């Protein structure tokens, strides 16, 4: 019961644009207020640290590494270098006082460091390489998309035609004997 209440609280806070505590958010989908759509992908600001928790042997605070355990089932993954190069800018996430941050859904942190990202410290990007790299994650915008009614109709008609052809073939084979 407590897990359900925590999940509902995380969703309500996320819808209001407020970061939720990590313990409540790690195993629920990231609310749309906490990520952006850019190009053909959704982008989430997943952590104020690199995915491993530190870079070049460094430590990034006492927080956890980026946890993609549950969120990978929702399509989230680390972006490729090409995706980062063609991806959003820091300003696409919002302004320093109000921007989309999803760290509560990927780590034990409940914040993102806008200034670090403005300085180019984004894990996997050309300016990255510091123990304070911000981590962005990505997923395809059509991930989990539900087919449109016209697509369903075409599929049903297609299955009907295949079924009819199989039935007709059986009837022709019976007359040939």
Please outline what is shown here.
This protein has helices at 2-15, 22-25, 81-86, 114-118, 149-176, and strands at 36-38, 41-47, 94-95, 98-99, 135-140. By secondary structure, the chain is an alpha+beta fold.
Strand content: 5-15%
Helices, by number, come to 5
Overall mean confidence score, pLDDT: 79
Assign an overall shape. Answer: elongated
The counted number of beta strands is: 5
Rounded to an integer, what's the Rg over CA atoms? Answer: 23 Å
Flag low-confidence runs.
1-24
> Structural class of the secondary elements?
alpha+beta
Helix content estimate: 25-40%
Q: What is the string of helix and strand elements?
A: HHEEHEEHEH
> Which sequence of strands runs across the widest sheet?
1-2-5
Sketch the major β-sheet. 3 strands, antiparallel
Distance between the termini: 66 Å
Properties at a glance:
177 residues, 5 helices, elongated, two-stranded antiparallel sheet, alpha+beta, three-stranded antiparallel beta sheet, 5 strands
């Amino acid at each position: 019961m407590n897990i359900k209440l925590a999940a509902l609280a995380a969703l309500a806070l996320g819808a209001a644009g407020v970061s939720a505590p990590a313990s409540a958010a790690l195993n629920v989908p990231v609310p749309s207020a906490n990520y952006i759509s850019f190009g053909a992908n959704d982008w989430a600001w997943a952590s104020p640290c690199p995915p491993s928790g530190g870079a070049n042997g460094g430590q990034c605070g006492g927080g956890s590494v980026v946890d993609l355990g549950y969120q990978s089932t929702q399509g989230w993954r680390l972006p490729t270098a090409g995706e980062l190069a063609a991806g959003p800018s820091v300003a696409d996430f919002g302004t320093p006082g109000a921007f989309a941050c999803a760290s509560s859904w990927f780590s034990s942190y409940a914040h993102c460091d806008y200034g670090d990202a403005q300085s180019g410290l984004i894990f996997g990007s050309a300016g990255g390489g510091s123990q304070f790299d911000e981590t962005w994650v990505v997923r395809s915008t059509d991930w989990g998309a539900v087919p449109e009614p016209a697509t369903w109709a075409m599929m049903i008609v297609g299955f009907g035609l295949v079924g009819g052809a199989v039935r007709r073939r059986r009837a022709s084979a019976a007359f040939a004997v």
